[in-house]
Amino acid sequence: MRSLIVLPFLLLPLLAADRNDFRVLATSKTSTMEKEMNQAAEEGYVFAATMGGDTAAAGSEVVVVMTKGSAPGGKRSYKLLATSKTSTMQKEMDQLGAEGFDYKGQTVFSSTFGGREVVVIMEKEAGRAGGAIQYKLLATSKTSTMQRELKEMGDAGFALVGLTVARTALGGAELVSILRKQ
Fold first, then answer.
1. Strands of 59-68's sheet in order across
2. pTM across the whole model
């Protein structure tokens, strides 16, 4: 009978290893979100998901969920890119890709100062050297155009990593696709 009493206590460390701790971050400023994500990363949290939109309490915000638990690897750092110009976003993503940052997620929301913007989250694992990661950002209002452009990028070896459909300040209602090639 003693082994029945002791056995659950022996299993607790195994069960705890499968648990995740979550941290929800929400703000209307992308600069604040980048700072809060990097603070959470210092505590061992990693990016899990993002979405932009109207929250009940604060209006238009970007919301990020970070998790700590079963994620492999070391500490990470984050960069948030926010712009209504696709050419600017393309250039910034390529620069961060050369520094070893990898695409993690994207959303569209109305920021305090920038209006309607596409927000892209980039992540770099500590100690990771820069690499030859290339990104392509495609933005169009027509699905037929997106089909053609995605096919061309796929033929060139790019993989689709993100898609948003939203109304941006610059282009109106747009499909915004992000592709990656290493």
1. 21-27, 59-68, 46-55
2. 0.78
